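Apologies for my clumsy wording, but could you write out the amino acids of a protein and the tokens describing how it folds?
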Amino acid sequence: MTQTTHLSCICGQTRLAVEGTPILAAECCCTSCRTAGGRLEALPGAPKIVEPNGSTQLILYRKDRVHFDKGAELLREHRLTPQSATRRVVAICCNTPIFLEFTKGHWLSLYGYLWSPETRPRIEMRTMTSDALPGVNLSNDIPNPKRHTFSFFVKLLSAWPAMGFSVPKITFVKGEIDD
């Protein structure tokens, strides 16, 4: 039987379910995640998504394993630049960031804080530590590679054949956030 985890925005108007286990749970230290995180955290009532060490916790799932049960019409996107291949998606009812999407990819990176600390998948690695904030000492409790590693890509790409090598389009996100 497949495990289903139910998640929601802060106010509960947007709800989603994720099936099975994630592809990977990681902390990203890249400048883009930190910059976008700062912009999203500045929205009225938005939760904090950037960790004190400057990283962002992301739980990666296949797109076909993420289903919105309620409130998909409340989702809006934010791109760092109009040409960005990545977009961050926010529930505008309460300004809760929900996921980061590489639009040409087969996965979604859900923000880790959507889970309670007790149920959140255990972070397996940090990535892009070459972009870490100056002076930040990252703990050695998990791997801290400077860039995405071969094992990172193996985990990501190994999920793709089970989807028939499809790249589902997320078409229900309409419009941009006002920032």
